[in-house]
Amino acid sequence: MRTRRLLIASLTASALACSLALPAHAADTVIKVGTLKLIHGITPYFYDKFTPAGYKIEVVPFETPTDAKNAVVTKSVDFGMHGLAAGILGAAAGEPVVVLAPMSNGGMAIVVGAKSGIADFKGLKGKRVGLLPGSTQEAVFLERMKAEGMTIKDVKSVRVSFSEMAGALERGDIDAYVGAEPGPSISVTRGVGKVLEHPYSTPVGSVNMVTTTHADTVKGKPELVKVFLDIHRKASEYAMANRKELLAMANAKLGLPAEVADLAADNVKLVWKVDEDWLQRCKNYGSLMLERKQIRRLPDYGSFFATHLGPK
């Protein structure tokens, strides 16, 4: 009889433990975050460290800014990390993409072949330049060309994705490219390319990637947005303060050798805080795109920026 009582007690305890554990796991809210396969898109891989109980992060990597933005618009992800240009292109076309906060600045470089003989910006005339249409880099490059008295017709523009640019330069398919890290650092460390300039002298400055969501999420799930933006703040600050872990994460998630990651990290700033300077530079960006006829009208900034839900 005593053995039977012990067995019943044991089974009851096990059943109770399961009943307590399973509902908590099942109730976790999964937050799907899309980001780019770039070192300045790496912050989401640190989110797990700062995700409160009841939530779970799922990171979805994308090849291009447009892919990441489209995932936001179609609600394939809850939040997206991509270039500002992709967001402005979408919003100007009436898509329900909303900017919540900065994500990263920098990460851009104009790279030329190490033996190309190109010594300055005007040396790009007549050269094959790798460029990704619809990217932040494209808008900045066009503005730099304007400052140099040039137009896109002065170069042979070649469509190349960011991840292919370093390889295309090494094969001799292009003479230069307007790239995103880690491409420039890969070219430099291999001795294949050299940085002609970091194109941060335009009215846009070094503004690059932004944190976005669908307009419905801002209206219907403001508490989720607040939770997410607090995670984003903590992860951004942690990654910037712990360089060794940043480099290790770049190796683990992007496969970057230590030398490449170390050089690329010097050209990247992971950010989260909204201020007037950042907002103005974002609007400058829109004006440049309108002037260059990349968009037909400016986004409605009153709805495009929903920065009121983030930490201060």
UniProtKB/TrEMBL annotation:
Keywords: Signal
Signal sequence coordinates: 1-26
Principal localisation: periplasm
CDD domains on file: PBP2_NrtA_SsuA_CpmA_like
UniProt cross-references to SUPFAM superfamilies, sorted A to Z: Periplasmic binding protein-like II
Similarity-based family: Belongs to the bacterial solute-binding protein SsuA/TauA family.
Protein name from the UniProt record: ABC transporter substrate-binding protein
Organism of provenance: Comamonas serinivorans
Organism lineage string: Bacteria, Pseudomonadati, Pseudomonadota, Betaproteobacteria, Burkholderiales
